[in-house]
Amino acid sequence: EAQVTQNPRYLITVTGKKLTVTCSQNMNHEYMSWYRQDPGLGLRQIYYSMNVEVTDKGDVPEGYKVSRKEKRNFPLILESPSPNQTSLYFCASSPLALNTEAFFGQGTRLTVV
Amino acid sequence: SQKIEQNSEALNIQEGKTATLTCNYTNYSPAYLQWYRQDPGRGPVFLLLIRENEKEKRKERLKVTFDTTLKQSLFHITASQPADSATYLCALDIIDGGFKTIFGAGTRLFVKA
């Protein structure tokens, strides 16, 4: 089944403790991206990747890192999480950067205390 | 400043009627515009994509219009059903030093039986 898989689905952590949210897609898509979703603000793009080893900042990249060492994986790294990073996070992939639908993962609800 | 606005209030309609959702944007020149459906606690699901040189696109009970002069897209669901109740997101694909997708905050639709 074609899908985007994120892990974990839920995570509660403490301020400053490094964490990684994994994202994997099995559709051989070139473009992957991370979003955070907050009430009233909608989805905001954090980082995106056009292909392996090619990543770029979205609209809200501060406090986040990403890597794209393999085509299928695009992990999101929070080196030193803070409470303002408490949010619902979505990974998405699409065949191309534009003109194609995006497939979203199930979401990761992160709480930083 | 650049922004995307969708109906900020929830939309309540009776089953069988046509639901019309609005997406307005300023200071963007999108190459494409997309509509997604999102159910509570789930990732967005792609519905339709329309190109800047297309006026209208249809898929089953769904219709999207795109007016680049007015900077507006309308999303219609005809013969609406309670199962159509969800949040609908408008998204712009833009080329801005890279390839980005910018989402609106969404409109919550309730269809009453």
If you had to describe this structure to a student in words, what would you say it looks like?
- The complex is a heterodimer of chains A (113) and B (113).
- By secondary structure, chain A is an all-beta fold.
- Chain A has no helices and eleven strands.
- Chain A has strands at 4-7, 10-13, 19-25, 31-38, 42-51, 54-57, 65-66, 76-78, 87-94, 103-104, 108-112.
- In chain A, strands 2, 4, 5, 6, 9, 10 and 11 form a seven-stranded mixed β-sheet that branches.
- Helix content of chain B is 0%, strand content 59%.
- Chain B contains no helices and eleven strands.
- The A-B interface holds A 4, 31, 33, 35, 40-45, 48, 50, 56, 58-59, 90, 92, 97-107 and B 4, 31-32, 34, 41-46, 49, 51, 89, 91, 93, 95, 98-106.
Topology:
The complex is a heterodimer of chains A (113) and B (113).
Chain A lengths: L3 E4 L2 E4 L5 E7 L5 E8 L3 E10 L2 E4 L7 E2 L9 E3 L8 E8 L8 E2 L3 E5 L1
Parallel strand pairs in A: 2-11
Antiparallel strand pairs in A: 1-3, 3-8, 4-5, 4-9, 5-6, 7-8, 9-10, 9-11
Chain B lengths: L2 E4 L4 E4 L4 E8 L5 E7 L6 E7 L4 E4 L2 E6 L4 E6 L8 E10 L3 E5 L3 E6 L1
Parallel strand pairs in B: 2-11
Antiparallel strand pairs in B: 1-3, 3-8, 4-5, 4-9, 6-7, 7-8, 9-10, 9-11
